[in-house]
Amino acid sequence: MSGQSLSQTAYRELIRRILEGELKPGDTLQESRLCTDLGMSRTPVREAIARIRSEGLAEQSGRFLRLRRIGSEEIEEIFFLRRTLEPSAIRAATGRILPEELDGLEDEVRALMRGGPGKDDLQWHVDRTFHGTIAIAAGNPAVAKVIHDLHMRTCIFDHRVVPERFELGCREHLGMIDAMRQGDADAASAQMEAHLSHARDAIFEHLDEVPATASEKAPSE
């Protein structure tokens, strides 16, 4: 396996642990310990940790790099930007996105609904694919990168934290797919804006339920 593949494997495993609550806000990302846990050398683990940090999920705290807790002000900022960018992105993507891409997105959403809200991170991956595919289809790589990074910063708020959003979110995705398939950019844009507003509101209702570790409140060393 190439170095890049190892780095991607390490990154995906760290994201899985964050999504499933094995790594919580306040936990340290210690390179040596993670190398042992993952059975990898320092280089791919270091690259994975750097990527986690660049996506806003971790920050330096004294001598340690710790997973961040996302507060209400930051969530408001994230969704302000997403509601600014993504309705425009889906408007631009309508008519550009390939029919087979829409079919693939619909298949993933419907398969997720049939399987129900499991304990793994499948829902998050389907959601990331949905928003990422639309952003890329809009034809502006810089905007697509910003949307990806904003999405990553709220990745812990999946169906395990906001369970009421599982089926509703899936149905909203299907509605947007249908609007794009019909070439109705106005409807797709309006539905995206409503979808993001609903997600934001649900996150605020559950914000205090995200688990933290005792070390999160510990003084910097």
Automatic annotation (TrEMBL):
Any one Pfam family here would be: FCD
- What InterPro entries does the database record attribute to this sequence? GntR_C (IPR011711), TF_FadR/GntR_C (IPR008920), Tscrpt_reg_HTH_GntR (IPR000524), WH-like_DNA-bd_sf (IPR036388), WH_DNA-bd_sf (IPR036390)
Question: Would the keyword Membrane be found if you checked this record's keyword annotation?
Answer: no
Q: What keywords appear on the UniProt entry?
A: DNA-binding, Transcription, Transcription regulation
Query: Domain HTH gntR-type, which positions?
Result: 4-70
Q: Which GO terms describe its molecular function?
A: DNA binding; DNA-binding transcription factor activity
Q: What is this protein called?
A: GntR family transcriptional regulator
Source organism of the structure: Allosediminivita pacifica
